[in-house]
Amino acid sequence: MDIAALITWVVTALGGFYMLGTWIRRGGIRQQQAGTSRLPAQVVFGHFALAAIGLVVWIVYVVADRTALAWTSFGLLLPVAVLGFVMLARWIPVHRDHAAGTTAAATAQGGAGTVPAERHFPVPVVVAHGLFAVATLVLVLLSALGVGGS
User: Per-residue pLDDT for 149 more than 90?
Assistant: First the structure.
């Protein structure tokens, strides 16, 4: 179960890195000042930092097999999940506006800078990232509880 959690965590991280890179490349940081992006940089980078720290702790747990490290990883994942849900809730209206054609009209009126950077996240990546994140959280909890052995 420990290795399964590690694999799902790495897959989740790959999707997260892709979205972080897209957000940065499309001007998400610059858009903070203009208020265009709906994703606060503190939330984006806090989510990333806590998830990365948790992954490192999980890798150490897999090597050292210390229960306290499993619980530490799980504890780090809880705020990661909360921040992830915050970003999802803020991303959904951006996606809906794009699907409804609202951003196309805004772009025509105000230039390319009015399109939120997160509008460029592919829906399959967002969905896969979320599903793998939930699987990771469950697998880490089960491993910390000692279900399935280590």
Answer: no
- What's the CA gap between 47 and 20, in Å, rounded? 10
Residue 26 host element (H or E): none
The Cα–Cα gap between 8 and 77 comes to 13
What type of residue sits at position 61? Y
113 vs 60, residue with greater confidence: 60
pTM for the full model?
0.86
Our CA angle for 67, 70, 76, nearest 5°, is 145
Helix, strand, coil distribution of the chain in percent, nearest 5: 85, 0, 15
Distances (CA, A) of 132 to 4, 12, 24, 85, 89: 11, 5, 22, 14, 18
pLDDT in tens, 92-105: 999 988 777 754 44
C-beta separation of 134 from 21 below 8 A: no
pLDDT of residue 119: 94
